[in-house]
Design brief:
Length: 303
């Protein structure tokens, strides 16, 4: 009986600029995403009949939600329709990435489900239709098809690969009792209306972003959500400050939160800093390059 196992890596935002609110109600963003070694795991096994079975371990809330609402189920269901396959599959999702913390766990699970299912059924799919399926599942899902370092523009759903940077060591701190819904974070931000990308106050941010994101040396961490989210949740600012006091060269809110991560000189120094967060979930990890990501994912894309 064959079995496919595939990791689903988390991400952090190295930079997140919000240029303003668009006429369609969404926000125009410039976003540098980076995959890290913290990951969930998906396991695919054959099942009788033509059903999609999904079992979740490690997250009680996801276990209580309806299976068909889960992004892993939706990803496999969409891919089966695309490939016209109806054989049964059982999927075990083992969660390690905390949900609702700005680390992209749900989107990464969806992308891993797409790639893993292609391997499971010994099929390939051209990148354009696979990206279309991924984008229908969520704005960050296309990024996780390739991993490494990437640029997100528009609503964040238009993704382009960026040059990899040197390996960085992170300590991610996830407070157990704080959840920040992304719509709330945007509301707290009070972003001004965006009339033009070339004739408004966001113009200087746009040019700065373009210069920095193409640098192979990386860029200084920045997240426009921080002031608004920290004002609503002072505990997150305390975590940010504690990371710096314990040796992080920089610290940043992950996406809209609520996880906060610090950059450390080495994994050993990151592990020593864990003692400062006895009541929070902590994860020591490092950045994962696009080539390393592809090797781990064993990409099923058609060449």
């Amino acid at each position: 009986m064959r079995e496919i196992r595939i990791p689903a890596f988390a991400k952090v935002n190295l930079r997140l600029d919000i240029l303003g609110k668009r006429p369609d109600g969404f926000h125009e963003v410039r976003n540098v995403l980076q995959t890290v070694t913290l990951h969930d795991t998906l396991r695919f096994r054959p099942a009788r009949g033509n059903t999609i079975g999904l079992q979740i371990q490690g997250n009680e809330q996801l276990c209580r939600e309806g299976t068909e609402k889960n992004l892993v189920y939706r990803a496999v269901d969409a891919l089966r329709h695309e490939l016209k396959i109806n054989s049964g599959v059982h999927i075990l999702l083992k969660k390690s990435i905390p949900a609702g913390r700005g680390l992209g766990g749900g989107s990464s699970d969806a992308a891993a489900a797409l790639l893993g299912y292609l391997q499971f059924v010994h099929k390939t799919l051209e990148l354009p239709p696979l990206l279309q399926i991924a984008a229908s599942l969520g704005a960050d899902v296309p990024f996780f098809l390739l991993g490494g370092r990437g640029l997100g523009i528009g609503k964040g759903d238009e993704i382009y690969p960026l040059p990899d940077i040197r390996t960085l060591s992170f300590l991610i701190v996830s407070p157990k009792d704080i959840h920040v819904p992304t719509p709330d974070a945007y509301r707290w931000l009070h972003a001004p209306a965006l009339d033009s990308l070339t004739k408004n106050s966001a113009n200087h941010k746009l040019f700065e972003f373009c210069a920095l994101c193409w640098s192979a040396q990386g860029e200084r961490l920045s997240n426009d959500f921080e002031p608004a989210v920290f004002q609503q949740h002072p505990r997150l600012e305390e975590i940010h400050r504690e990371l710096l006091q314990r040796g992080a060269s920089e610290a940043l809110l992950a996406g809209s939160g609520s996880a906060v991560f610090g950059v450390f000189p080495s994994p050993a120094k990151a592990r020593r800093a864990v003692v400062g967060f006895p009541h929070d979930q902590t994860f020591v990890c490092e950045t994962i390059s696009r080539s390393r990501y592809a090797r781990r994912m064993k990409s099923a894309l058609a060449v």
